[in-house]
Amino acid sequence: MATRSANVNVRVEPDVKKQAEDILEKLGVSASAFINMTYRQVIMKRGIPFSVELPSEIKTLDTMTDAEFDEMMQTGLKQAKKGESVPYEEAFDQLMEGL
Description:
Elements: H1 14-27, H2 31-45, H3 66-81, H4 88-97
């Protein structure tokens, strides 16, 4: 029996499309295969196959108490002294992955 296919047409921001396709290419997965896998997961889970929620509030200097800030700085200092720090490029890459 011949496999049939249907087209899916969507609009995606160019930068989002490029970033996603670059990652998929590194994984050896085509965009079509990824969409097909995602659709199959929607069917299997009978819903969206990943969590859809608002991120928790990001702590900033403006939203932290002095005690929270001091604790964060102490934690960072202890990590640095133990050699648990990472180069800033790696830290920014990790932050960007979370977006």
